[in-house]
Amino acid sequence: MSAKTVLISGASVAGPALAYWLDRYGFQVTVVERGPALRPGGQAIDFKGRTQLTVLERMGVREEIFRRQTGRTDIQFLDRSGRPLAVLTGEFLGGEVEILRGDVAAVFYQQAADRCRYLFGDSVRALTETADGVRAEFENAPARAFDLVIGCDGVHSAVRRLAFGPERDYVRHLGYYYAVAGAPGWGMGADQPQRGVAHGWSAPGRLAVKGGSKASQLYIFAAPELDYDRRDGAAQRRLVTEQFASVGGGVPGMLAELPGLDDFYLDSMSQVRMKGQYTNGRIALVGDSAYGNTLGGVGTGLAVVGAYVLAGELALADGDYGVAYPRYNEIMCRYAKIAGQSNAGRFLAPRTALGLRGRNWFLGSRAFPLMMKYADNASNDIDLRDYPSLVAAG
Ligand SMILES: Cc1cc2nc3c(=O)[nH]c(=O)nc-3n(C[C@H](O)[C@H](O)[C@H](O)COP(=O)(O)OP(=O)(O)OC[C@H]3O[C@@H](n4cnc5c(N)ncnc54)[C@H](O)[C@@H]3O)c2cc1C
User: Fold this and answer.
1) Measured from the CA of 39, which atom of ligand 1 is nearest?
2) Which of 123, 244, 277, 311 reaches 20 to 30 Å from 264, CA-CA?
3) Tens digits of per-residue pLDDT, 111-163?
4) With a threshold of 0.85, does the pTM exceed it?
5) Ligand 1 lined by 149 (C-beta under 6 Å)
């Protein structure tokens, strides 16, 4: 085997999945994660279609993922007086199985944690490729050389910045921001939505959702790129409050609760554009770092399939990244196409009153099941190789 040691940056969905597969194929794996531990909770994410379920099956985690599923939640859009306008179905939002992101990370992590080395609370600071490896410098740990380095560190990937170039060259702002606050919650009081239904209120370019499996509050708003302090949570909450001040319905009540909710997170809705070139020398990207599209509804499945394909191609090529990486690029360029096609902000929070009426009409029309069918077809649009058997056959 030419490559033996692999550094993975990021331990959320793609990172632990890739660590599992690489370890299974005999690589020595180190994972560096910026957070002090695996991040529990998080929003509900989902897996769609038989291809993604097949990968979970081959990882031996399908049963555990289903055991931990959230149960899917409809979002019922209401007008200011509480009259129902339209429903976005839990089936659309939650795919075949919906589960909290932290639970996915924990399930994948447990599959190989005792055999991989996890460095929590650290981050790569510099990567230098040499003739026979990549020298990685860390914020805390001593520098070390690896045969390969893989970035599984999300839309704002440090590995992509260090190995490919600045974020502005690869990440496109989709004209919207989102904020989540509080743990996913259902039916905690008389005024709360029941489990199975979240409530949403809209204005042009604005959507606020209360309850459901994404978070206890979810806000989406149209805005050009904003200049705000990423470390100042209070200022970010004020920003959300200003954006939603005039929306009405249940939103004033949500905004009143917002200062008291934990787990607040605000970020732009962005699309990563790598033009099918997810590798550079010995360095590769998997998951949102390579083909992310915020709230596009496909990121988790792409991350899991991408990890499966990259590890499988590396194992089949006996660690020769010169053979494996082009195959990975080719396969994932096609499969990840769907991530380049959607803008969840525009779909969920159209900028005009006419657009909002169109959204509500569309959700009740015959065209909506067709869109779901398209998404289902896209999630299976890959000729998935049975790498575990192929590698075992040697
Ligand atoms: C509100 C919301 C709802 C969503 N709903 C869905 C859904 O319904 N369906 C779906 O398929 N997808 C959904 N997604 C998208 C899904 O969360 C992502 O596609 C998926 O988590 C991608 O996994 P990843 O491992 O590539 O990246 P991420 O989950 O972003 O993880 C990146 C990891 O890298 C770590 N990291 C970052 N920088 C560094 C660094 N410098 N050094 C070390 N570690 C670092 C981070 O701490 C994190 O652990 C949703 C996302 C959001 C925000």
Assistant:
1) 49
2) 123
3) 999 999 999 999 999 999 999 999 999 999 999 999 999 999 999 999 999 99
4) yes
5) no
